[in-house]
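Journal club prep, notes for RB
We'll compare a predicted complex against what the paper describes. Inputs for the UFG case:
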Amino acid sequence: MKLLVVGGAGYIGSHTARQLRRAGHEAVVFDNLSSGHAQAVPDGVTLVRGDLLNPADIRAALDAHQPDAVIHFAALIEVGESMRAPGRYYRNNVTGSLNLLQAIVDTRKIPLVFSSTAAVYGTTDAVPIPEDAAMQPESVYGETKLMTERMIHAFHVAHGLPYTILRYFNVCGAAPEGDIGEAHPNKTHLIELACLTALGQREKMMVFGTDYPTPDGSCIRDYVHVQDLADAHVLAVEALHAAHARGEAGQATYNVGLGHGFSVLEVLDAVDRVTGTPLHREVAPRRAGDPPRLVADATRIVRDLGFTPQFTDLDEIVRTAWNWHRTHPDGFRR
Ligand code: UFG
């Protein structure tokens, strides 16, 4: 299969492009490099520099490369920033996705796999969270992902667009080879920050709240390894493409997580063990918008796609992140 990977120079997109190649597929990355890195694009994968906000760019890429399916990662992803700059988020994430959808149905009507997020659920009492839980995003970021999910469904109903939506929980870790990993311009993710603190780039780790109704008082999250998540995309696009070839409508939504969680304090303990340096920790007030417990009900993706995560041990997950940060303390910058 030939895949167009939109946003494929980013953290999750680059790991997915690599796993697609390993599964024997051809990949072309389309990315505006606003937060992605050309160095993250695997060998043997063409990088097309283009912007979804310019419809001619994506139409030209579809025409030139004639892919069999599209995987769409391109988005701004920071919850806090989305509250301060909603216009940027709606324009980039919603209008950008709309341009992609329109280009797909106008030109090739090929299947689409879309990167969504557990942030579409917001705070919910249903934990582990099933895919049919109520969706009440608490941030503009989550809202833009939910709006895009709804646009995709409308294009499916009106134009027969086959789709699979993957809602990620807390993506973390790095390729075990240590050559690609997380390198966001603004760092907010727990494991990345803890590794950079262990490298001495920051003075201490703030623990945002130890008064939550959880066993140790800190928030619980479902940490899914980026390479397992990349493999989930390979399974999803293969299944969707096969269903499309059989003439089936193709429409599915899956949570992607391990189905169990770790607390902030458990994660920091793991980082201490892996790095061998106990981090200086400081308890800080709760961070706005953090639900106490976000854990996926992942039974649907296991049942339908045979998703089998390889990275289930917290220390092993952290070790891959540490290996990347230790050898690339400035990310992709020299
Ligand atoms: N945390 C700290 N200190 C820090 C950073 C984070 O205590 O310095 C805590 C947070 O308060 C939270 C947990 O660590 O309880 C995880 O925080 P992250 O920022 O790593 O991740 P989030 O859970 O906020 O969000 C991530 C993605 C979202 C996605 C969500 C789904 O960034 O896009 O997971 O579970 F929606």
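Talking point for the session: Residues 77, 117-119, 169-170, 188-190, 193, 205-208, 219, 221, 264, 287, 290, 294 surround UFG (CB under 6 Å).
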